[in-house]
Amino acid sequence: MLHTLDDLKNLAIHASDGDIGQTKDFYFDDKHWVIRYLVVETGSWLFSKKILLSPISIKELDQEDKTLSVSISREQVKNSPDIDTEKPVSRQYEVDYMGYYGYPDYWGSTGIWGSEPSPNMMASGYYSVAPTPDNLDNPDKFADVDAALSRDNDHHLRSSHAVTGYHLDAIDGELGHLQGMLIDIDTWAIRYLIINTSNWWSGHLVLIAPKWIKEVSWPTSKIYVDMTQQQVKDAPTFDPSEPFNLEHEQSLQTHYGRNDK
Fold first, then answer.
1. Which of 53, 81, 128, 190 is a good FRET partner for 208, with 20 to 30 A between their CA atoms?
2. Which fold has domain 7-158?
């Protein structure tokens, strides 16, 4: 079952030693279309600052209670690297962040989570607060960090809040604007963009998979998709009040003649 971003907002984060705060935004990787970090607003215990939470630390989602259980502690969060969530997340910050929590790098492979298919598989054996002194004294570690920094200096993390409202164009005209996203919380991959077509087809929501996108112009806030208006109009519509299950997905992909999750 997939969840909308609205389903995942305002979730209470349960750490091993108390509550951390609530989810407010999500940073996604625009190359792999996957959620890399949840932006969590802490409560008064940490001056209501915003911190980043990696899906690697997530253990369980309880949709009924609107809670996320995580493997880290409030003490770890308190001492984690500071981040200004109003500015782009740099690769240097990610190196420091992943090193602090003892997580392996996700950017060292072609997969969306390094060599693993899901973030929770990266967490096994990586629950320590910070790297051990042996790791810090290992010259190969610094070589790996330098390689990571030089390999990908471009900024590929985007705020889901910031891109909401982007306009979409089909081959032959406008489609509408980005209203939300459907997330697979097993992998935290963005499986579909939720498009509001009210500017040309009133009252309908449709789904577009990231792999069906031809181009994204971040400077102009435009998304171009490789399909026609009629193809979209003939496709199954999306009803956020109903669970989006495998049957709905198969119907959608059959319509577009594609089977690329």
1. 53
2. SH3 type barrels. (2.30.30)
